[in-house]
Amino acid sequence: MASLSISSLTFPSKSNLTKPSSSSAFHGVRIAHLCTTRLPSVSSVRASRPPSSSVVMMAKREEELKEIRAKSTEELNEEIVDLKGELFMLRLQRSARNEFKSSEFRRMRKRIARMLTVKREREVEEGINKRLSRKLDRKWKKSIVPRPPPSLKKLQEEEAAAEAKESA
């Protein structure tokens, strides 16, 4: 048990409290009274409240992680490239002052991070150390062939279909 010792402090008497002392600015110690009422326990508060949105978010995140873990490593790599392309397209839209959902930035970054985490978990299971993992990542990034993201492909297909309708 820890003990507290105060050796150099002097506490003024009640008569000295009314008149200010010019030798010291310290006029005693104020002790706050502890509240003796009992607060409700956390479990009873949780039981009485309806489930919050964070609980729903956790469920969605767990579902998303199950989906990610069900994919092969090659599928994860492909989807990571696609999502990074989508993120780039969002940045372009923001810089061009076009309309976009700002919440998509965070959602995509988080999804990419989850995929990379699952990918690294698999590497750890295989016994690949951090240094080799980074070396493999650099090799993988160099092997990526630049291609338009799915949203741009979809936009180009829609434009081509519109032109075909006009020409027909």
TrEMBL record:
Keywords: Chloroplast, Plastid, Ribonucleoprotein, Ribosomal protein, Transit peptide. Residues 12-23 have a biased composition (Low complexity). InterPro entries: Ribosomal_protein_uL29, Ribosomal_uL29, Ribosomal_uL29_sf. GO terms for biological process: translation. Residues 154-168 have a biased composition (Basic and acidic residues). GO terms for cellular component: chloroplast; ribonucleoprotein complex; ribosome. It is found in: Plastid, Chloroplast. Residues 1-11 have a biased composition (Polar residues). One of its GO terms (molecular function) is structural constituent of ribosome. Residues 1-23, 139-168 are annotated as: Disordered. Its main location: plastid. Transmembrane segments: none annotated. Belongs to the universal ribosomal protein uL29 family. Part of the 50S ribosomal subunit. This is Large ribosomal subunit protein uL29c. The lineage of its organism: Eukaryota, Viridiplantae, Streptophyta, Embryophyta, Tracheophyta.
